[in-house]
Amino acid sequence: MRNLTQDLADEAATLQAGTQFSNYLRPGCIVFLHGDLGAGKTTFVRGILQGLGYSGKVKSPTYTLVEPYTFTDFVLYHFDLYRFTDEEEWEAAGFREYFNAHDVCLVEWPEKAEHVLPKADFEIKIDIVTAGRKLQIMAMTAAADSYMGKADTE
Ligand SMILES: Nc1ncnc2c1ncn2[C@@H]1O[C@H](COP(=O)(O)OP(=O)(O)OP(=O)(O)O)[C@@H](O)[C@H]1O
Ligand SMILES: [Mg+2]
């Protein structure tokens, strides 16, 4: 499986990496974003949304848990599960249905809901290092691996 690592010197580099990553996304993709508080997960998501052509505001869904963005081919759901505690709420809120064959889900803090979340196609890891951030992009499914390969040879 493909596995990319990259140094991100500043916020602009994180945005740029997110925009680049958006080329790997296809309808139905599930992406987990790992990293400590303030690592840059939401910044990376902002870059993805810019890459998809969205130019509005991107707010961190810390209290609402999820924020939807509607595109022509799919709805992109941006989750921040830092405050997620109640697994029964997952069903009740209808979150399970967001993970389907045509929509895209980006999930910050997937660790907080590991019992209810399906498997990810991509896992992103952002580590805080002295000179900015270290980024790792991992394809976790054969489909994700082929999307990466295709986009990188285009
Ligand atoms: N490569 C980078 N180098 C230095 N600072 C960065 C870099 N990328 C992003 N930042 C900064 O890190 C800060 C936190 O970013 P962000 O809100 O995206 O983190 P987060 O991982 O989503 O945090 P949380 O877990 O609280 O949601 C922002 O001020 C952003 O500008
Ligand atoms: Mg965040």
Walk me through the structure.
The protein has 154 residues and is α/β, with parallel strands linked by helices. It has five helices and seven strands. The chain has a seven-stranded mixed sheet with strand order 1-7-6-2-5-4-3. It is globular and about 40 Å long. It starts with a strand and ends with a helix. The site of adenosine-5'-triphosphate (ATP) has 18 residues, from helix 1, helix 2 and strand 7.
Offer a few descriptive terms.
Rossmann fold; 5 helices; 7 strands; 29% helix
The low-confidence parts are: none
Strand order of the largest sheet: 1-7-6-2-5-4-3
CATH-assigned fold name = Rossmann fold
- Total of helices: 5
State the CATH superfamily name.
P-loop containing nucleotide triphosphate hydrolases
Q: CATH class, please? A: Alpha Beta
Heterogens: adenosine-5'-triphosphate, magnesium ion
Q: Structural class from helices and strands?
A: alpha/beta
- Second rung of CATH, namely the architecture: 3-Layer(aba) Sandwich
- N-to-C series of helices and strands: EHEHEEHHEEEH
Strand count, sense and closure of the main sheet?
Answer: 7 strands, mixed
What does the overall shape look like? globular
Give the number of DSSP strands: 7
- The domain count comes to 1
Portion in helices: 25-40%
Could you tell me the strand content as a percent range? 25-35%
The end-to-end span amounts to: 19 Å
Rg, Å, rounded: 15 Å
Provide a concise account of the structure shown:
29% of the residues lie in helices and 28% in strands. It has 154 residues and is an alpha/beta fold.
